[in-house]
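Key result, reporting period 2: structure in, sequence out.
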């Protein structure tokens, strides 16, 4: 299972695109998987024949774990050799030096031997399998679990060091940083492997006083409990971390959309005959923000322990609502694109997002985000910044309102289409005056688009 991003720990197998015995060429797609961000295709790394498929559709598989083998054409497949991500390549063809399995030698796979040695367990203590005289990895793992269960039932300390419990490297690192013991944490990964998010949830529950069980608070008739899916759990973890670690301050302005709406209507009437994408309010705002970010590079920055990173590229993320969450595809180098191209990209990325067809490069690298809920009738809201970005713009609906218009002959009351926007910024990076100047430019460009030409 390939690792598509630095933070990825596992992936869900969506569908196999090949079957046992199929011939493949290097680069051919062999399966579709879902990471915590997008659905991806796994490609064949070499030419050959698919053999020994080890996972099924719906399985959650840790990265780097073997999912199948590609055997060269004409070479005999050896299904009796057990191979995992930790197995030496020499073990595949039997060339690895393994103790001679005579009558007095315990038969075990190389992986089982290494696991038993790391847990300081003698293979003599493990009952031989009934239908398979060779001890395999799962037999060692089951033995460890049985011993630990028995010791816990007797009130004794675990016989196997808790550090030997199944946990991802990220989970172990996080537990060490927070001085937590892994044996207290219940794993939700494959074969109950402890994930980084399990450590985070354990810490949150530990740090939250007065928590009560819903069954105690509400009684037996408490309604349906909907388990977290991967997307909801990922969103929850990231939003909590971002909200707790970033000092948010917000700025709200109202823009007169009269000129911007007229511009959109004129462009859309011309684009209908040209067959191009419709220019949405979001596309206009993205264009305006890209221009304003060029004038205010500090808004297009990221916080780091070493200093404030001023990003060269202006990559604008546009939040897209999905049935079970949201995702933020990114318009790369938006400041170098015209309004027509931005509109085309938003339409294309939104369609891909709703179909689950976004590629990883289409959701990475954002430096600023726009979240527009105006189409849902929302007047105004605030959004949580997506680290490592330093700002996010929350956009409400355009609503006709009475507005006082200053004219040489005196003030007049007119009905204008007004739109509220709220900018959330990281106060470590962006000061109030800086954010106010940015929002002033955004309003100016929406009310007087010709300013962007000047």
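The corresponding designed sequence is given below.
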């Amino acid at each position: 299972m390939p690792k598509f991003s630095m933070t990825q720990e596992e992936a869900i197998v969506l569908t196999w695109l090949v079957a046992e015995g199929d011939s493949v060429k290097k680069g051919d797609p062999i399966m579709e998987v879902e990471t915590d961000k997008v659905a991806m295709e796994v490609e064949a790394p070499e030419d050959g024949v698919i053999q020994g498929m080890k996972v099924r559709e719906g399985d959650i598989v840790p990265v780097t774990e073997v999912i199948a083998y590609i055997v060269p054409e004409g070479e005999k497949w050896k299904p009796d050799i057990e191979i995992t991500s930790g197995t030496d390549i020499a073990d595949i063809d039997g060339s690895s030096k393994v103790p001679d399995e005579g009558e007095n030698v315990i038969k075990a796979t190389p992986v089982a031997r290494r696991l038993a040695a790391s847990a300081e367990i003698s293979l003599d203590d493990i009952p031989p399998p009934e239908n398979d005289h060779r001890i395999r990895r799962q037999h060692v793992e089951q033995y460890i679990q049985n011993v630990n269960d028995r010791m816990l039932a007797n009130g004794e300390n675990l016989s196997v060091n808790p550090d030997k419990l199944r946990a991802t490297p990220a989970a172990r690192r996080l537990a060490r940083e927070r001085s937590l013991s892994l044996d207290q944490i219940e794993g939700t990964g494959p074969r109950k492997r402890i994930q980084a998010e399990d450590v985070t949830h354990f810490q949150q529950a530990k740090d939250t006083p007065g928590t009560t069980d819903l069954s105690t608070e509400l009684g037996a008739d408490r309604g349906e409990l909907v388990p977290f899916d991967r997307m909801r759990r990922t969103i929850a973890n990231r939003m909590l971390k971002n909200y707790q670690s970033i000092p948010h301050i917000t700025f709200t302005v109202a823009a007169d959309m009269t000129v911007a709406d007229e511009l959109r209507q004129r462009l859309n009437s011309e684009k209908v005959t040209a067959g191009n994408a419709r220019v949405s309010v979001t596309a206009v705002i993205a264009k305006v923000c890209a221009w304003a970010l060029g004038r205010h590079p500090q808004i297009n920055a990221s916080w780091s322990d070493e200093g404030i990173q001023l990003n060269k590229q202006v990559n604008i993320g546009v939040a897209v609502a999905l049935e079970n969450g949201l995702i933020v595809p990114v318009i790369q180098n938006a400041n170098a694109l015209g309004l027509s191209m931005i509109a085309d990209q938003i339409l294309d990325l939104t369609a891909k997002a709703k179909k689950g067809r976004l590629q990883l490069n289409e959701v990475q690298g954002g430096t600023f985000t726009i979240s527009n809920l105006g189409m849902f009738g929302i007047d105004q809201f605030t959004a949580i910044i997506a680290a490592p970005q330093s700002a996010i713009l929350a956009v409400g609906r355009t609503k006709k309102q009475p507005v006082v218009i200053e004219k040489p002959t005196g003030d007049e009351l007119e009905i204008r289409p007004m739109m509220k926007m709220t900018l959330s910024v990281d106060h470590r990076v962006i000061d109030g005056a800086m954010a106010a100047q940015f929002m002033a430019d955004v309003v100016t460009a929406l009310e007087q688009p010709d300013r962007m030409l000047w």
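The chain has a mean pLDDT of 81. Residues 51 and 69 are 5 Å apart (CA to CA). This case is discussed further under Risks and Mitigation.
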